Amino acid sequence: LLFTGQTFAANKYFSASGSDSGAGTIGSPWQTISKLNSIYSSLTAGDSVLFKAGDTFTGSITVNKAGVIIGRYGTGADPVITGFYTVPAWTNVGTNLWESTAAVSTLSTCKIISINGANIAKGRTPNSGYWTILSRSTNSITDATHLNASITNWTGATVVMRKYRWITDAFTITSASGGTLNFTNTGDATQAGYGYFIQDDVRCLDQVNEWTYNTSTKKITIYSVGSPTATIKVPAAETAIDLNGFANITIDRITMTGFNSYGVYGPGNDGTVVKNCSFNLIGNIAIYQYASGQDASNCNIQNNTITEIGSMGIYAGYSSGSTITGNTIIRVGRYPGMGGNGDVSYCGIVNVGDNQTTTYNTVRAAGYCGIRFDGNSALIQGNFIDSTNFVKDDGGGIYVYPQQTGPNDTVTYTTRIVRDNIVINTLGAIAGGEPSSNHSEGYAIYNDGTSPDVSYINNTAATAEYGTFFTSTDRTVVDSNTVYDCKRGLYVVNYSGYGVENLTVRYNIFVAKEADQYAAYYEPGAATMPASFDA
Fold first, then answer.
1. Which of 136, 345, 397, 409 lies 20 to 30 A from 262 at CA?
2. 89-122 tens-digit pLDDT
3. Per the omega criterion (within 30 degrees of 0), is the bond before 407 cis?
4. CB-based contact 106:236 (threshold 8 Å)
């Protein structure tokens, strides 16, 4: 009688050798993700959905109850959830051009494919570098040197443009006339003198393994000398696990691969835990935790391995109380035109909520920033960042930008700490960028937009265009850092007259390795350092 009305957590088991007519027990497991989706609403908070180790399951999970755990059972490799479809047959449609004999998915786009397990870029014209925008309007660009609609009409293809150093956007070409391409532009205006290229058109294919996807026929075309013999896989689903608005979901020791947009999709979902998982070959973002107007809180993303992602590794957005720790993120946003639009795409980690910790992560080979943060009471500690900012420019291995800008005394935060990090090889990306520039703007540690109230302590930065960079700031401490082999070790700019106030620089080692490097550089220059400096 004491236990009347109580419910107890239950386990539901899935095995590739099971049967959907089974009982969902360990002795009679279910087989498919379709079965899981059909019974999900009958689960209870605290229940576990367990996939058998070593097995592979095809499809997308749609969460339909809060508080459920998604994990594994048995021994061996973590279970795999995949959205990939293997192309079975090809038809020759031109010299060295092979099209899938049938449609490969029902999706409106194809953002990533696998060829023998490798992430291969779409075909593009030109094959490398950028053509130059000679003139522009809001919704068009003109380049009479390379464009002639009477010879090659690019209508229906995609134009990829460097709008600013830090923005690379892609838009569908709606029409073409002469040397002009027209498109529907969103976001920032296009600028003359910057670069662009064309993709998503079969006429861009002229190198082995370059590919394009026909959004009408849903077929893929690849450049191959002879019928393709490689194993070519295309995502047939957008998302591995859609949290569908439900809170307190835990995902543990699951491998997710071959999805067009997301690994875990949870905008505005509180209490999400994603740990010990692997994400590979995801077209947009591996773990997505924020959407505009949907603040998530208390997410915990730890000890995951994230590789070959089209645009971003982890996007926590304005998630307050988030913990992102111990993750390894490698090769994210590394192909221009294959990441998302806007200024935060091509990043390893984006975490700009209050009371957050981003600690002990490894980010290597991210096309833009390694870690981008903001918010009150942020701790960025013990991270290793290597080889970033090679697709977009004017970013940092570790980068902070305030939600608002203005005179320093109008923007305040509770203290943020960036300490014990190692940041190397912040490369920068000149090609297609600011036409008047002959140098990159890759910053190892970048305190941008007058960001105040940050303490940088005991960090190591090396081999970047610039080491530590401050565009005006207030109540900021630079303490016990080592900066080596950068054009400017400590670089401080009085940005738009906002002022540099209460900047404390002490106990650091700034090493100018070459004769043309500076240990410290203040701009605009002066005979003496500003009185507000305590150095």
1. 397
2. 999 999 999 999 999 999 999 999 999 999 999 9
3. no
4. yes
User: Which amino acid, residue 120?
Assistant: I
Q: Establish how many alpha carbons lie within 13 A of residue 413's alpha carbon, considering only the half-sphere containing its beta carbon.
A: 30
Q: What angle do CA 352, 248, 239 make, to 5 degrees?
A: 75
Phi-psi region of 527 (alpha: psi -120 to 50; beta: other; left: phi over 0): alpha
Q: Locate tokens 């002990």: which residue?
A: 360
Instruction: Give the list of residues 6+ apart from residue 202 with CB closer than 8 angstroms, or none.
Output: 93, 94, 97, 212, 214, 221
SS3 assignment, position 230: coil
Q: What is the residue-wise DSSP string for 345-409? A: TT-SEEE--SS-EEES-EEEEESS-SEEE-SSS-EEES-EEEEE-SSS-SEEEEEE--SS-S-GG
Sign, CA dihedral 489-495-500-503, equals negative
For residue 268, give the amino acid letter: G
SS3 call for 139: coil
Which one, of 38, 33, 81, 46, lies nearest residue 248 by Cα? Answer: 46
Residue 247 DSSP symbol: S
CA distance 237 to 442: 36
Q: Give the whole-angstrom CA distance, residue 495 versus residue 514.
A: 27
Query: What's the predicted TM-score (pTM) here?
Result: 0.95
Chain-centre distance for alpha carbon 12: 33
